[in-house]
Amino acid sequence: MESVWAEVKTLIKDQIPGHSFRMWIDPIVFNRGDEANIFLSCPNYFSKKRVEDQYSTLIENEIRKLTGTGWGLVLEVSARRALSDRSMTAVSPIPCPKQMVLPMIGHPVMHTGRMLRENYTFDEFVVGSNNDFAYSAALSLAMADHSRNNTLFLISGTGMGKSHLSQAIGHYITKKKPSERVYYITAEDFTNEMIGSIKNKTADHFKAKYRNQCDVLLLEDIHFLTGKEHTQIELSMTLDHLSESGKKIMFSSCYLPSDIPKMNDQLKSRFSSSVISNIEAPDFKTRLKILRKKAQRENYHVPDHIIEYLAGELTDDVRQLESGLVGVIAKSSLLGVPIDYELAESVVRNISVKKKMITIDLIKNTVSNEYGITVGEMVSKSRRQAVVRPRQIAIYLSRKFTDQTLQSIGKSFNRYHATAMHAVGCVEKSMREEVAVKKHIEYIAKKLEAGTIK
């Protein structure tokens, strides 16, 4: 039977992507067999679950075709690994925290390390053809004790799952190795903390924190560093220290390293030397899996034909899918009506149809009217705050409501790609820090969605 499994592996190798084979199939070894089953050993529980979910049918089919028998497939975890895991659990006196915050030595509370969301784990991540390599690379980074490349760079648009994978790495490591110092942070947080340390004359403590007291750095939204020369220099030196010490580093961004403007060559080189993985929009099959998993997790009872309808209509990203599912459930509950096509169509209409009607020109007109300026002034070279602020908001809304690239959006406002990116960052920051600004922009967004301004 061992020779059968070796031949089956050879056949499977030609049917799935190379990275998937190396990550999931190649490590499986033959254990034993009897008259009814073939027993295979996986290196760990994550591997066993992944193979059961994604490849068990393929393996069974190849065994059947090769042998002409109906042998069943039984996947087990390597006895040595299982014993090791149990031993680690039994002797470890340290609790498994959701987030390990590295305190700022000699400085009052500066908790910029973010908490990990409870459900952002590898188990909860839905894997499809759009994100298979990203999932494998993230899990490989989390599991590896020693590797030639301990850095990963995830790229995707908003709502595609890069933050989920980032935090899944943190969850896995803090659970398996509680003594590891894991730090999950955004590039903006890093910048603000660095500036704060300079103002408070604690720069040495700031440097020691990231260079000497961090084992795993999960750094999100690195495109925020565009144009921030001093932060880039500090981060470059920090990454050199971490890399030389064999620490694990994960970056995420909406852009390829080479596409981020005003980024120094040293950082670009560092980012580009990582394992780079893009996460695309989910295909129909994956959208179905996402909706069904969400419904099961939240104990929603949604008919299959409605799940299929939502998966067919809501194609932008994972957040849009989940928003549609929650909207259907909420509307059904509030109105006390069953979930049917008519109800689902009304929810989808609000999410997708109106969004398609929102153009950059409509956004320009809407924002111009709201702030009492002309469209000509908005796209002019004026640097008056009364013009700059509405222009930034219009660029932000164009990014939010249209499928245009930042380069195209910038061109529409007579601005460069980097300027458009800066505008989006400024508005996002203001919305986080000022409630009044957030409410006003949400008010304009609702007007656009409702189509009340022409």
Please give a handful of descriptors for the protein shown.
about 450 residues, alpha/beta, GMP Synthetase, Chain A, domain 3, Rossmann fold, Helicase, Ruva Protein, domain 3, 4 domains, 5-stranded parallel sheet, 21 helices, 8 strands, about 55% helix, globular
How are the strands of the biggest sheet laid out side by side? Answer: 5-6-7-4-8
Shape: globular
Strand content: 5-15%
> Uncertain runs with pLDDT below 50, 5 residues or more?
81-112
Major sheet summary line: 5 strands, parallel
CATH superfamily of the largest domain: P-loop containing nucleotide triphosphate hydrolases
Number of helical stretches of at least 4 residues: 21
CATH architecture assignment name of the largest domain? 3-Layer(aba) Sandwich
Question: What is CATH's topology name of the largest domain?
Answer: Rossmann fold
The total number of structural domains is 4
| SSE topology string | HHEEHHEHHEHEHHEHEHEHHHHHHHHHH
> End-to-end distance, in Å?
71 Å
Structural class: alpha/beta
The total beta strand count reads 8
Report the mean per-residue pLDDT as an integer. Answer: 84
